[in-house]
Amino acid sequence: MSGVLGGSQAARDLAGKVQTVLGPVDPETLGVVLPHEHLFCDLRAYFTEPEETEKKAMAAEPVSLSNLFWVRRQYFANHDNLLLREVDTATREALFFKQAGGGTIVDMSNWGLGRQPQGLVEVAKKTGLNIVMGCGYYIAASHPAATRHMSAEQMAEEMIADILLGVDGSEVRAGVIGEIGCSDPLEPDERKSLEAAACAQRRTGAALNIHPSPFNDRLVHEIVDILGNAGADLARVVVGHCDQWCFSLDTRRKIADAGCYIEHDNLGFGADVEFSFGKWRDLPSDTQRLDDIKTLIDEGYRDRLLISHDICLKHRLRSYGGWGYAHLLENLVPVMRAKGFSDNDLRALMIDNPKRMLTFAETG
């Protein structure tokens, strides 16, 4: 392999550190971590045109109190709801998390998800939070046409350059690979992207986060197998959306038994039904999520668990009527204590596990 893949010294220099958009930091400085969020995001690849004539005009309206009742139920049907791109809004919302006791936010937006490196730098400077940026490719529907002609090696070189050199000619570097998007069925370019991400992980020592195929327990096992066969360190692979995609507890156990982290990352999003991917679906409530997490802790999986909100839509921000990034700390920690979560459980979920995941490993 050529190009930046030969830059092993830069990767060795990162070992034992966490890379933020302002540079590497000591893992002990992270504090409470939200390991899967989006301060900036573009989800227009998911836009779903409303069927009802009277609703088509609402698709073009800004999110407001007058249409929030509808946006909350059919959130992919409003263009404005699918965009997070204002620095001032991101800063204000991130400060709620800091004021509640938070220390670090991982922004999982990458190619295809409207990543804004300079915007993340501004938020980090204005809030004093550690901000970690993702890299790699999201779902195939969001890929640029050029990816069809790229090899897995070329994709890997781009990811490695983002981590070791900087994004788009800047000095802003990614600190995690992901979220790597997968559809159902898994697209050829997505399989290639998974293989590339495994290569980039080996060469940099970064953690790797997967956006698995939705609502398909069989396919998530296939994705883990693809990564393993491509040489990924599964102990540093995070399988996201295990709650939102309603994977069975047995599937989650098998993911953890393979060595991966199980991420319950849609806290604050549920207790209702949603219209997505062409179907009406039940969403788990936070109570159901916490009960599942407690069950997995009691079964010995505590060190393989991560929790977050995955805020990627306007209606989930406080500014637009949502719970925001402080929901876990402000609203759920008291509930978790009432449900029997110990101080050690809380520390593992919010501090120790994400710290371990984000710390760069040594490379060969």
Distance between the termini: 15 Å
- Beta-strand percentage range: 5-15%
- The helix/strand order is HEEEEHHEHEHEHEHEHEHEEEHEHH
- Estimated radius of gyration: 19 Å
Based on CA inertia axes, which overall geometry fits?
globular
Number of helical runs?
A: 12
Question: How many β strands by DSSP?
Answer: 14
Global structural class: alpha/beta
**Mean pLDDT reading:** 94
State the helical fraction: 25-40%
Poorly predicted spans: none
The largest β sheet comes out as: 5 strands, parallel
- In which order are the strands of the major sheet placed? 8-9-10-11-14
Which short descriptors sum up this protein?
364 residues, alpha/beta, five-stranded parallel beta sheet, three-stranded parallel beta sheet, 14 strands, 15% strand, globular
Question: How would you characterize the overall build of this protein?
Answer:
α6 crosses α7 and α7 crosses α8. 36% of the residues lie in helices and 15% in strands. It starts with 7 loop residues before the first helix and ends in a 6-residue tail after the last helix. It has twelve helices and 14 strands. Strands 8-9-10-11-14 form a five-stranded parallel sheet. Strands 3-6-7 form a three-stranded parallel sheet. The longest helix is centred in the middle third of the chain and has 17 residues, at 188-204. With 364 residues, it is α/β, with parallel strands linked by helices. The radius of gyration is 19 Å and the shape is globular. β10, α9 (249-257) and β11 (261-264) form a beta-alpha-beta unit.
